[in-house]
Amino acid sequence: MTRYLALFGSINVGGNRLKMADLRYAFEREEFENVEAVVASGNVLFDFDDRPTEGLEELFAYMMRERFDIDSFVAVRTREEVRAAVEDNPFVGVGEDKFVHTHFLESQPSDEQFDKLVSDHQGRGEEKLALGNRCLYIDYVNGVGDSKLTAAFIERRLGCRGTARNVRSLARILTKM
């Protein structure tokens, strides 16, 4: 069995309220093992046979629509991928952990798409950006709340959805994995 992390976007925001107990139960009904919600809403650890994470992402997005009537992006990563999302982030140890994020993406953007994101963001804020493997590394420098670098802004430039977690939360999740 492989240990996975499912990162749900759009949970408990904008009216998409969902109890983590209900989400855990949905996972268990689908025969996933050792299901555990961690750190904050929208993070679920589980064990399952080793398989490509893209198929699991599709399954969970379908489950969210069918069971809960919520259209949610879901990123699924292995323990090694979560570790890399922290260790490969060039802003870890430079910026404040609560402001340094990994934005998990549904696909790998091209260098051209990333360059467009950086170019379009120029002059809009002090955030620092770097492209990773199916993720975007961001140092929000002055915090996420007032940033103009929103998920919608990122999605339009990169052509794919994502969901972000700060490195402090990811480190706590890693200890649970």
UniProtKB/TrEMBL annotation:
- What Pfam families does its record include? DUF1697 (PF08002)
InterPro entries, per the entry: DUF1697 (IPR012545)
Among Gene3D superfamilies, the record links this protein to: SP0830-like domains
| Domain of life, source organism | Bacteria
Can you say what this protein is called? DUF1697 domain-containing protein
Q: Which species? A: Novosphingobium indicum
